[in-house]
From TrEMBL:
<dbReference type="Pfam" id="PF04349">
    <property type="entry name" value="MdoG"/>
</dbReference>
<dbReference type="GO" id="GO:0030246">
    <property type="term" value="F:carbohydrate binding"/>
</dbReference>
<dbReference type="InterPro" id="IPR007444">
    <property type="entry name" value="Glucan_biosyn_MdoG_C"/>
</dbReference>
<feature type="signal peptide">
    <location>
        <begin position="1"/>
        <end position="35"/>
    </location>
</feature>
<dbReference type="GO" id="GO:0030288">
    <property type="term" value="C:outer membrane-bounded periplasmic space"/>
</dbReference>
<dbReference type="InterPro" id="IPR014438">
    <property type="entry name" value="Glucan_biosyn_MdoG/MdoD"/>
</dbReference>
<protein>
    <submittedName>
        <fullName>Periplasmic glucan biosynthesis protein MdoG</fullName>
    </submittedName>
</protein>
<dbReference type="InterPro" id="IPR011013">
    <property type="entry name" value="Gal_mutarotase_sf_dom"/>
</dbReference>
<dbReference type="InterPro" id="IPR014718">
    <property type="entry name" value="GH-type_carb-bd"/>
</dbReference>
<dbReference type="InterPro" id="IPR013783">
    <property type="entry name" value="Ig-like_fold"/>
</dbReference>
<dbReference type="GO" id="GO:0003824">
    <property type="term" value="F:catalytic activity"/>
</dbReference>
<keyword id="KW-0732">Signal</keyword>
<comment type="similarity">
    <text>Belongs to the OpgD/OpgG family.</text>
</comment>
<dbReference type="GO" id="GO:0051274">
    <property type="term" value="P:beta-glucan biosynthetic process"/>
</dbReference>
<feature type="domain" description="Glucan biosynthesis periplasmic MdoG C-terminal">
    <location>
        <begin position="66"/>
        <end position="544"/>
    </location>
</feature>
<dbReference type="InterPro" id="IPR014756">
    <property type="entry name" value="Ig_E-set"/>
</dbReference>
<comment type="pathway">
    <text>Glycan metabolism; osmoregulated periplasmic glucan (OPG) biosynthesis.</text>
</comment>
Length: 548
């Protein structure tokens, strides 16, 4: 059976890491399954609020009334040996992806359904790919902390047989917040926390695409493998009437680290998840990935090889963008490589970085089901001084668009030792709004393919055509006013370098040829447009070109 994409047909998605495929089934969207028989009585008793159990015995988790208390809890947790969460029962593990994703939480049972707030919460059951349950609590305005009890009758099931497999004490796999993003009278999915430390969000008029994670540890380590921390407990702060933001606390745990996370979620045309993370390390970590993003790129206009498909492109993000401390903006089109590529970029005191979907034209996708042109960008803006470090872009070979094969995260230069306390704060902005330097031109398209110098000649050169738009480029029409600048990381002959005005984009096209004989190993390239005096007119285009 074909694995469907997360929030696409609500079956699942494979998150690929260095040859290891970790299946992350993530259910969402409108649930259309028929409800199984529900012996629970109707009325207020069916509301999720009534499913909250009154605290009978105070536990350390019921003392988490704010972020400071959660930080204290994470500190104490890190002093103890890591204990993996218990797995769910065999019956749930054997649920098929199709059956699992047809289990839906009833909207009339939503948390805060009977309160005057635009935020509501629906829950996911464990099962199928989700082998562990998480604990969820609420924090009311009087600082009362209550556990949200699992009630199997709050879910609808595709059949009585599936309903019978759900234990009465199964627990939750995660949750999603809803909010009227597009219509004041309709609840839309806003953000989802489901699986390991994954979360993702929507802005108005967007569809789910890439994900974020709380933390990445040893991504790309082919010897001992990647460590996946988990959010094991969540605290949902009850929003006040008319509130425009809502707060979620999360406890992160793994063999190497325990952490306290605070998420302040503000929906809109640009939805912002403001993240604060305090980490306590149990042991040294070879590579710590901060503010990780995960996406999919299978093929695009820059792909020399692609799957046999009627669609021109298929990707959730088409490039990585970096705003460096020195004022440079760097755009790196994504690649589906033939083997694993690990790319590092200096990012001391980085201003911002993210995975971006710049191509918003349906004609370039021709996919009426998946709506790639509506995938949101995710832009990370660090707060405070992150210090010295680098960004790492991981690109993993993939033969299917069901796989998440792109990772991006920031890595501190200082070694991470056991017993450390680390703190990071940043915003993740989700939207379909353009992200580009205001005063500079930016890359609108990167087209790459084989080219012959003259008709009939063997195609032994690769042609690169980069369309730059915006900034002052719209006003420049003289051929002598714009200069092409192309550099390679090693001594390679690059031919036919030129910049010409493109009347179709109201910008300029930079193009050049690279001999295929120069591509015995991948070639790193940089290119931009300069004015007559050598001053930069555009962001910097960066690319790793490989032999097709």
């Amino acid at each position: 059976m074909r694995l469907a994409r997360y929030y696409r047909s609500t079956v699942g998605r494979a998150v690929m890491h260095t040859g290891l495929v970790l299946v992350m089934a993530q259910a969402g969207g409108a649930m259309t399954a028929q409800a199984a028989s529900d012996p629970a009585k109707s009325g207020a008793a069916n509301k999720a609020k009534s499913a909250e159990s009154a605290p009978q015995k105070t536990t350390p988790y019921q003392q988490v009334i704010d972020y400071a208390a959660l930080v204290s809890l994470a500190r104490q947790r890190a002093k103890k040996d890591y204990k993996a969460p218990p797995p769910v029962g065999e019956a749930l593990n054997k649920l098929s992806p199709n059956d699992y994703t047809r289990i839906g939480y009833k909207t009339d049972r939503a948390l805060w359904a009977d309160q005057k707030t635009d935020f509501k919460t629906l829950f996911y059951p464990p099962g199928s790919f989700y082998e562990h349950a998480v604990k969820i609590y609420t924090i009311n305005d009087d600082k009362t902390v209550r556990s949200v009890d699992f009630d199997k009758h709050a879910f609808s099931y595709p059949s009585p047989a599936v309903a019978k497999k759900m234990p009465a004490d199964a627990g939750f796999a995660g949750f999603k917040l809803t909010y009227p993003l597009n219509d004041a009278d309709k609840q839309d999915e806003l953000v989802s926390f489901l699986g390991a430390s994954y979360f993702r969000a929507l802005a108005a008029d967007t569809r789910y695409g890439l994900s974020a994670r709380g933390l990445a540890i040893d991504t790309g380590n082919t010897q001992k493998g990647e460590e996946f921390p988990n959010f094991t407990r969540f605290w949902l702060v009850e929003p006040a009437s008319g509130a425009k933001s809502t707060t979620v606390y999360a406890l992160l745990d793994s063999p190497s680290v325990a952490g306290a996370y605070k998420f302040v979620i503000t929906p809109g045309k640009k939805t912002v998840t403001a993240v604060e993370a305090t980490l306590f390390t149990r042991k040294a970590i070879d590579k710590l990935g901060i503010a990780p993003l995960t996406s999919m790129f299978t093929w695009g206009e820059n792909s020399l090889t692609r799957l046999d498909d009627y669609r021109p492109e298929a990707h959730d993000s088409d490039g990585m963008l970096i705003s460096a401390a020195n004022g440079e903006w760097l755009w790196r089109p994504l690649i589906n490589p033939q083997k694993l590529w690990m790319n590092q970029y200096d990012a001391n005191d980085v201003r911002g970085f993210g995975l971006v979907q710049r191509d918003r034209d349906f004609a370039n996708y021709q996919d009426m089901d998946y709506g790639y042109e509506k995938r949101p960008n995710a832009w990370v803006r660090p707060k405070g001084d992150w210090g010295k470090g680098h960004l790492e872009l991981v690109e993993i070979p993939s033969d299917s668009e069901v796989n998440d094969n792109i990772d991006l995260y920031w890595v501190p230069s200082e070694p991470v030792k056991a017993g450390q306390r680390l703190h990071y704060a940043y915003d993740v902005s989700w939207s379909d709004a353009p992200i580009a330097p205001q005063s500079l031109g930016h890359v609108a398209a990167s087209r790459i393919g084989m080219a012959a110098v003259v008709p009939g000649q063997q195609k032994n050169q690769v042609k690169i055509a980069i369309d730059f738009v915006g900034g002052s480029l719209t006003k420049l029409t003289d051929a002598n006013s714009v200069k092409a600048r192309v550099n390679a990381a090693r001594d390679v002959t690059i031919n036919n370098i030129r910049a010409v005005r493109n009347p179709h984009t109201n910008g300029w096209r930079l193009s050049f040829l690279v001999p295929t004989k120069a591509l015995e190993s991948p070639l790193d390239l940089r290119a931009y447009l300069a004015d007559a005096n050598g001053g930069g007119l555009t962001e910097t285009w960066n690319y790793r070109l490989a032999n097709p």
